[in-house]
């Protein structure tokens, strides 16, 4: 039997057993986790590590995990998809039951989730970490242009990362790569500026007459601004052009045009990142509380403010003040939720945790920059706030920070997924 057949059989077999339990209460407390990305995989693993009596089922629709962190280096041709692709099946060694399927509905009254391939799984507590989906309608014509393959976002690492890399390779020397950034909040505040930097590094080496045109809906570079701008003027003069307050309202794949509020811009490769909201399953489950986009939570437990017994993690949350949507934060949210769930299922009062964000960006093939912050529970404000005087940014870009960026990525992949 091939490995793939074996995994398919194992998943179907375990699912049959789980579905049989749905009507009855689990024999020991069961936690179901929806989404095996940075938030969900970490939560599943840590619940099992901190209390092996709890039955944990992780439902992930994709066959393997593809990391957004480091994916910009794939676009630049500095690393390959194999370096950012991992299996989550290794979590089974902690006793996590991994089911490769999609959750299509959540019934909070019945405490069960429904799976696309049929069947339901009952739970005592549910963790939802679905990442983001896009509000495509805010950029007129985007969906049609994306379906034709002419315009891509590549803001979920995977097939679009590969396709955008191909477009950049096929672009003529002297062409224009247009990167359109939505209004914040979006996942990974420095991610677009890292993308502009490393694509410029690729152009400088492979097609030096080409340009990177950054159209930012925000007024200015919204993360590590002075460090990015310094790298752009030192390393890529004449290659990167940055325009703030340049929000894309429409896109046309036939004429390769991005329409801004006041003008039209043409390019050879159009990389338009539409505005985001919490992943679809959060919408279907009634977890959205704010601006039709995000899920507010109690930051001591990550429990939803809309639906009891459901904990929401990662990019899908309504961010606490000064908190970015990052893999680092999703991994930390997961540890808050895992600790709280273990406490609650053992009759203990959960205690608030202090958490840390660290976010590296490459500005060239080898040089990196960093931003970090510490967030703690403030009982007066009832949320996590950034600790005054903590964190900060790199003094300057360096190869040492680039090496730390790779170490950070390998460490968080291992902590979340292995
Ligand atoms: C280009 C780029 C670069 C980045 N670089 C960094 C970086 O350097 N550092 C950093 O900290 N962050 C970085 N990020 C941000 C980081 O990737 C996200 O913040 C992080 O992935 C959020 O984790 P999550 O668990 O919320 O969502 P995800 O990691 O996206 O996981 C969500 C998972 O849920 C699954 N899922 C969704 N719905 C269902 C369903 N109904 N049923 C089953 N499964 C479902 C999805 O398939 C997915 O696997 C970057 C992002 C981008 C786009």
Q: What's the gist of this structure?
A:
This protein is 31% helix and 26% strand. It has eleven helices and 26 strands.
Q: Mean pLDDT, as a whole number?
A: 93
N-end to C-end Cα span: 24 Å
Question: What is the count of helical runs?
Answer: 11
> What is the CA-atom radius of gyration, in angstroms?
22 Å
**Overall number of strands:** 26
Return the structural class: alpha/beta
What composes the largest sheet?
Answer: 5 strands, parallel
Describe the strand arrangement of the main beta sheet, using strand numbers: 5-2-1-9-22
The portion of residues assigned to helices is 25-40%
Q: Provide the low-confidence segments as ranges.
A: 1-17, 19-26
Which small compounds were modeled alongside the protein? flavin-adenine dinucleotide
Strand content: 25-35%
Overview of this structure, please?
The protein is of the alpha/beta class. It is 31% helix and 26% strand. It has helices at 3-21, 38-50, 71-75, 81-84, 142-147, 159-170, 191-206, 225-235, 280-284, 327-345, 399-417; strands spanning 30-34, 55-60, 65-66, 85-86, 97-100, 103-107, 112-115, 120-122, 125-128, 132-134, 151-152, 176-181, 211-216, 240-243, 248-252, 257-260, 264-266, 269-272, 276-278, 297-298, 303-304, 310-312, 355-362, 368-378, 383-386, 392-393. It has a five-stranded parallel beta sheet. Helix 2 (38-50) crosses helix 11 (399-417) and helix 7 (191-206) runs parallel beside helix 8.
């Amino acid at each position: 039997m091939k490995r793939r057949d074996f995994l398919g059989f194992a998943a179907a077999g375990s699912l049959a057993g789980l579905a049989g339990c749905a009507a009855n209460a689990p024999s020991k407390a069961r936690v179901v986790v929806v989404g095996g990305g940075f938030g969900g995989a970490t939560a599943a693993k840590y619940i099992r590590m901190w209390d092996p009596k709890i039955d944990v089922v992780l439902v992930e629709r994709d066959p393997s995990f593809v990391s957004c962190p480091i994916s910009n280096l794939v676009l630049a041709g500095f690393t390959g998809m194999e370096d950012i692709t991992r299996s989550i099946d290794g979590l089974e060694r902690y006793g996590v039951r991994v089911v490769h399927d999609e959750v299509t509905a959540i019934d909070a009254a019945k405490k069960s989730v429904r799976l696309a391939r049929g069947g339901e799984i009952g739970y005592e507590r549910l963790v939802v970490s679905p990442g983001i989906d896009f509000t495509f309608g805010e950029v007129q014509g985007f969906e049609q242009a994306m379906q034709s393959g002419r315009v891509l976002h590549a803001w979920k690492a995977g097939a679009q990362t590969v396709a955008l890399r191909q477009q950049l390779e096929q672009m003529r020397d002297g062409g224009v790569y247009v990167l359109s950034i939505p209004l914040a909040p979006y996942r990974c505040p420095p991610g677009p500026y890292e993308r502009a930097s490393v694509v410029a590094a690729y152009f400088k080496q492979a097609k030096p007459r080409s340009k990177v045109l950054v159209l930012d809906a925000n007024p200015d570079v919204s993360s590590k601004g002075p460090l990015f701008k310094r790298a752009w003027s030192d390393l890529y003069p004449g290659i990167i052009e940055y325009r703030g307050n340049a929000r894309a309202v429409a896109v046309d794949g036939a004429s390769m045009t991005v329409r801004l509020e006041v003008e039209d811009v043409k390019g050879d490769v159009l990389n338009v990142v539409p505005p985001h909201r919490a992943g679809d399953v959060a919408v279907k489950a009634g977890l959205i509380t704010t601006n039709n986009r995000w899920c507010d939570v109690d930051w001591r437990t990550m429990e939803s403010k809309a639906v009891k017994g459901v904990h929401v993690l990662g990019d899908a949350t309504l961010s606490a003040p000064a908190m970015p949507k990052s893999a680092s934060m999703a991994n930390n949210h997961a540890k808050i939720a895992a600790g709280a769930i273990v406490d609650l299922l053992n009759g203990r009062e959960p205690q608030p945790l202090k958490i840390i964000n660290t976010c590296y960006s490459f500005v060239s093939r080898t040089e990196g920059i960093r931003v970090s912050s510490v967030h703690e529970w403030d009982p007066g404000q009832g949320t996590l706030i950034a600790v005054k005087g903590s964190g900060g940014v790199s003094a300057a870009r360096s190869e040492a920070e680039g090496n730390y960026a790779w170490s950070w990525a390998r460490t968080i992949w291992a902590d979340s997924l292995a």
